[in-house]
Design goal:
CATH topology of the domain at 10-124: Photosynthetic Reaction Center, Chain H, domain 2
Helix content: under 10%
Largest sheet: 7 strands, mixed
Number of helices: 4
CATH superfamily of the domain at 10-124: Photosynthetic Reaction Center, subunit H, domain 2
Structural class: mainly beta
CATH architecture of the domain at 10-124: Alpha-Beta Complex
CATH class of the domain at 10-124: Alpha Beta
Number of strands: 9
Radius of gyration: 48 Å
Strand content: 15-25%
Order of helices and strands: HEEEEEEHHEEEH
Length: about 280
């Protein structure tokens, strides 16, 4: 039994069945307005939580991982469908008590919506329905012996959607690479060249301006160009990460069940087909 102080923790928690399999998320908790006891919880089931099923909290316990109930997942999912509108009508209560093989009295309101209209349930006893979901008495299904002559045929339908999940990460990383570059650079240098010219009328004055015989020296400075290498860092381009959405088609294959109705007996019929 869930303690009254734990009701807020139950709402929004994850419900697990008696084997530890996940059933779904708890939507609302229905309490007895007389003493505040938590008696029923609605659990989101089906594909993507599109349906809600009711489960008793009589044998349930609340742990760090969520709510643990005393029934199997499939059995909870097949419970009678009841509108989650803040109250349980007497008919809703009868259907749930009969399905789970329970007896009880009381009125139950939703503890997940801040209140609701009280509903009263008279005492009922259902000893011929067990927890495994087997039906031993009349009136459990709309096709039971206490209803009209029609049967309700049901089928499963696929509810397919998409969910965005993370598949990976991409990042930009910059690192330094060293490589050699060969550049041809023209350089100049000076070399000594000996030139001889004969004595002419044009240069005879310069040739005879000095002493007749003497020791002399003439010095010429030679120069050359040398390669000077300097490096500078300059920006060359900008690189960024971007994302684009690609749409593709994926096929989903799933088994779905449906009911078929056929005539069984010796009666003569006309115009009847197997559904």
């Amino acid at each position: 039994m869930i303690d009254t102080s734990s009701i807020d923790s139950v709402i929004g928690s994850t419900a697990y069945d008696s084997s530890g399999d996940k059933i779904g998320k708890v939507g609302q908790v229905y309490v007895d307005p007389d003493d505040g006891r938590a008696l029923w919880a609605s659990v989101n089931t089906g594909f993507f939580g599109t349906s809600e099923s009711f489960v008793p909290l009589e044998d349930a316990s609340l742990g760090t991982d969520g709510l643990r109930v005393g029934y199997e997942k499939d059995f909870v999912k097949d419970a009678p469908r009841v509108d989650v509108d803040g109250e349980l009508s007497p008919a809703d209560q009868d259907a749930l008590y009969e399905y789970y093989g329970m007896t009880g009295t009381g009125s139950y309101t939703s503890g997940g919506t801040g209140g609701g209209t009280d509903t009263t349930r008279t005492e009922a006893s259902h000893t011929d329905t067990d927890r495994s979901g087997g039906v031993g008495g009349p009136g459990q299904d709309t096709s039971g012996p206490n209803t009209d002559s029609a049967m309700t045929r049901s089928e499963e339908q696929l509810n397919v959607g998409t969910q965005k999940v993370q598949t990976g990460k991409a990042r930009l990383r910059k690192y330094v690479v060293t490589e050699q570059q060969n550049v041809t650079v023209p350089v100049q240098r000076e070399e000594v060249r000996l030139e001889r010219e004969p004595i002419t009328d044009a240069n005879v004055g310069d040739a005879l301006s000095g002493p007749d015989l003497s020791d002399e020296e003439h010095e010429v400075t030679l120069t050359e160009e040398r390669v000077v290498v300097d490096k500078e860092t300059v920006p060359v381009e900008r690189v960024r990460l971007d994302k684009e959405t690609v749409t593709e088609q994926q096929n989903v294959t799933e088994d779905v069940r449906h009911e078929e109705i056929e005539l069984d007996g010796d009666a003569t019929t006309r115009g009847t087909d197997r559904l």
